[in-house]
Design a protein that fits this description.
Keywords: DNA damage, DNA repair, Mitochondrion, Nucleus, Phosphoprotein, Transit peptide. The chain is mainly beta. Helix content is 13%, strand content 42%.
Length: 369
């Protein structure tokens, strides 16, 4: 496992180099992995005839060809069935369908004049959204153990449809991926991604490109669960080279103790854009409800962790939940990070709205086909 982890860390360095070196690259390029480990070989990306050194290759494992890299799309979008390598977390996946989101980037808006600061420390500057493509994807189950410390693989959750108003369930290996995080590749394998839903959702058709087309079950599942899967708004802000991206999702409403409780899930990605090592120590949330309440939440770390963001592992992604006794609200706050010398600094969490669906239907109680 130690060797596998070393290969995984090395992959992250190569992926970041790969993303910066797209111009003038010679395509296609082979993509290989150590058989049975899900650990990609940086050396083998250049040529299948080169072997990993013993320090990077898990003992007793050999390299097997996974596929061939394609030229990433600068324009347009990827189709259903596109195989890819995640440029940040390094897992293999397949595109199910795209989402057209509105990206509110406060870094872009920072050049505009700001109004007076509010008590939460956020300027009240106007941030205009722009259209940005995200994808609903499946994660290869073989890679989940290698990314679980950096990105939750059961982050897409739903309200259970029964009397327990707080019960949630998750679909393992389901994720949302931004267009620029997709490194596309092709494979001759008819089942290149190991996930229980792969063959249920996709059909191999060698006459198509990519050669995996949507089954009727995928189209039906997307239509029936659209309100609870839909990605509409993305919020982003950078403080001292730490970029925070927030994506909120409305989950539905439940009745509890003669009142309505509205639920949201929010996914947060933290990225260190610098080479300095930092560690997340505390979170500070302000949660405003349309009912007029303002709640403050402080605590150590996030989801029980205090992740370290370094040059080798620059990103961490997690999901959490919030409930209000009102149909809408807002959230904002800060993350406190620590430097190696013991000093601290606060990173802003971009403010985002919590909005419910006006024409709400009952949230799903399982996978609807």
């Amino acid at each position: 496992m130690a060797g596998c982890s070393a290969a995984w860390r090395a992959l992250g360095r190569v992926i970041r180099w790969w993303s910066r070196s797209l111009t003038g690259a010679r395509w296609p390029r082979p993509l290989c992995a150590a058989a049975g480990t899900g650990a990609f070989s940086p050396a083998a990306i250049t040529t299948t005839r080169r072997h990993l050194s013993s320090r990077n290759r898990p003992e007793g494992k050999v390299l097997e060809t996974v596929g061939v890299f394609e030229v990433p799309k600068q324009n347009g979008k990827y189709e259903t069935g596109q195989l890819f390598l995640h440029s940040v977390f390094g897992y293999r996946g397949v595109v199910l369908f795209p989402w057209q989101a509105r990206l509110y980037d406060r870094d872009v808006a920072s050049a505009a004049p700001e109004k007076a600061e509010n008590p939460a420390g956020h300027g009240s500057k106007e941030v205009k959204g722009k259209t940005h493509t995200y994808y609903q994807v499946l994660i290869d189950a073989r890679d989940c153990p290698h990314i679980s410390q950096r990105s939750q693989t059961e982050a897409v959750t739903f309200l259970a449809n029964h009397d327990d108003s707080r019960a949630l369930y998750a679909i393992p290996g389901l994720d949302y991926v931004s267009h620029e995080d997709i490194l596309p590749y092709t494979s001759t394998d008819q089942v290149p991604i190991q996930h229980e839903l792969f063959e249920r959702f996709l059909l191999y058709d060698q006459t198509k490109a990519p050669p995996f087309v949507a089954r009727e079950t995928l189209r039906a599942w997307q239509e029936k669960n659209h309100p609870w899967l839909e990605l509409s708004d993305v919020h982003r802000e950078t403080t001292e080279n730490i970029r925070v991206t927030v994506i909120p999702f409305y989950m539905g409403m439940r009745e509890a103790q003669n009142s309505h409780v509205y639920w949201w899930r929010y996914c947060i990605r933290l990225e260190n854009l610098d080479s300095d090592v930092v560690q997340l120590r505390e979170r500070h949330w302000r949660i405003f409800s349309l009912s007029g309440t303002l709640e403050t939440v402080r605590g150590r770390g996030v989801v029980g962790r205090e992740p370290v963001l370094s040059k080798e592992q620059p990103a961490f992604q997690y999901s959490s939940h919030v409930s209000l006794q009102a149909s809408s609200g807002h959230m904002w706050g800060t993350f406190r990070f620590e430097r190696p010398d013991g000093s601290h600094f606060d990173v802003r969490i971009p403010p985002f709205s919590l909005e419910s669906n006006k024409d709400e239907k009952t949230p799903p109680s399982g996978l609807h086909w």
